[in-house]
TrEMBL record:
This is 1,3-beta-galactosyl-N-acetylhexosamine phosphorylase. Pfam families: Lact_bio_phlase, LBP_C, LBP_M. Residues 6-438 form the Lacto-N-biose phosphorylase-like N-terminal TIM barrel domain. It comes from Proteiniclasticum ruminis. Residues 441-661 form the Lacto-N-biose phosphorylase central domain. One of its GO terms (molecular function) is 1,4-alpha-oligoglucan phosphorylase activity. Residues 667-718 form the Lacto-N-biose phosphorylase C-terminal domain.
Amino acid sequence: MSKTKGRVTLPSETGFLEETKEMMERWGADAIRDSDGTKLSEDLKSLDAKIYTTYFVSRGHNDFSRNHMEETQSLYLMSRHTLAVDTTLRISFMDGYFRQQVMPDYDHDPKIYWEVMDRTLGTVVPVENWEVWTESDEVVLKDIAPYHEYTVSFLVKAIWDPTQMYNHITNNWGDKEHDIPFDVRKKHSNEYIHSYMSQWMKENPRTDVVRFTTFFYHFTLVFNDLGKEKFVDWFGYSASVSVDALEAFAKEKGYRLRPEHIVDKGYYNTAFRVPTKEYLDFIDFQSAYVAKQAKKLVDEVHRHGKEAMMFLGDNWIGTEPYGKYFPEIGLDAVVGSVGGGATLRMISEIPGVKYTEGRFLPYFFPDTFREGNDPTIEAKENWRMARRAIMRKPVDRIGYGGYLSLAYQFPSFVDYIEKVTDEFREIYDNIKGKKPYTGLKVAVLNSWGTLRSWQTHMVAHALWYKQIYSYLGILEALSGDSVEVSFLSFEDVKTNGVPQDVDVLLNAGDAGTAFSGGEEWLDEKLVTTIRRWVYEGGGFIGVGEPSAVHHGGRYFQLADILGVDKELGFSLSTDKYFHTAKEKHFITEGIESPLDFGEGMKNIYALGKDTEILSYHDGQVELSAHDFGKGRGIYIAGLPFNFENARLLHRCMYYAAHKEEELHKLFAENIYVEVHGYPEIGRYALVNNTDSEQKTAVYDEKGRKTMTVLAPQEIRWMEMEKNEE
């Protein structure tokens, strides 16, 4: 592969000039950046490169913060459930929280802004039945019911930024001063962010790109009393609450938010919760405000002739990149952390910006770049997963973050990234702006719809959790599949029906979650709209507990489409005779390894003999297909990501859409090889997704079959047959 240059951002640090020059040459970097904890010296800023400078809007300004501690940011938190054994009770509501991060807010009347809940009854305890003891941080209850559980929902001040706290602990920053976050809704803070921005721009003339990290409100990240993460929700708005926001919300929306609307029984409105009207209103309210304030800062950057880039993380709350207010900010670019294919697509498809950038892993921090560890292993896995998605919709740039001096100590890692950067540029130069071939269109159906495109089943980017990997694998598989992917909310379907160009609807998740839908499925219009659509020829794929809510003698409300339901123990007296799996079927053809359904799903049974059972194990259906009118329903117990499952989902979609005859077009029989076609340029790429040689039959755009062998990780570009005039 010939050496190329550009589209790569390199982290650097003071005192590392010559090594930075070397790395820029080897990786073809055309931009350098600082990181949290590093600075670029003047000699680095003089290099022939675009200079990114990290800019913290509402943290890292302690000279201001210390003089305005009344303007710190706030959070709503909930105490532990506490049992009453008498008619009185004392609750130490700060127990379990890290006092270096948060402190109780006594500046605002707890009787107005706090809430004590009887969790046994689900009711509010009258304010006359409790008092706050500020000396001991306790709430004392009286005249309450014995053997009920109680909680306190209370406001705290944030006195240490959680990302700086995490980096502080990870990198052993010792006595480094704690960043105190302040709230831009407050008068002095709002004035300060604009005056400081103007002055900072004048003092940093060599900065080309202002990298906002990010704007005002951090995602919900709360630490426990041991200084370890207690609660993390990358989408959480709980840390954007303040008395000023609550009062402004009431004035704008015409009703008051309760603490419970934010605390949400202690779940803090994670993305897994079916969102309430009140919470959706709050997201809308905060997003509108953030966009308005952020635009002022971006306009100031543009006034100085610089570019404005937003980091999709840290203080990104209120900047939902697929939300209706995001384009109003006027950003030039967005950069985000790439945990795999799903997060890559989440970044690369953001509308309304000039370019997007992916920050690849691993981060150059000592937890990974340490003696005895090989960071190349993580880098290879990260690149393989992201590359699948890049072939469908590339980001415009890639880069890394952290301490370059650490990465420099690992020569094999440096060698590997040199190959990665060249390969990225080769892919980008071939396909940027070109629509890839797609055989069909699938719409992911959940409570969030387009607002959280490519963000389903995520807690903190692509981190692994036992309860979600069987679902997150679906998004990962789709991120590199040759299908068009869209996202629909239940409200979209109820209001507008299923879009005409959609071939397959996909609903996946545990019962009661926002991704399965919970009580959304009690809506008659939703159910009948989808039934009609499938009956008239659409395809429906359900994974885990799709359309699940107990109602009308069903658990899966679309059991008639799927041909399966889940036994809850209520129909054990009804015999279930159907359990024989088909030996051969279009869906499982060519998949030789045992199917992996992850955590799977217990007690799924076939409703009748017309359900095609494709996998049956330990007394339950794991994979099935079912005709429904002119359409089809498919059930899958779970789908963690691996290449067998990516192929399984691909075949499921084609079968559900009645497009079996179109499968063998730009297609490889070997599951470890994928084919990506680009009709506009008359080329297609064969991609080996493994570290070993792969032999495969390949079908071109006409469906013609040839045999080929690909080297480990190889991408081979092929020419399509030119159409004769």
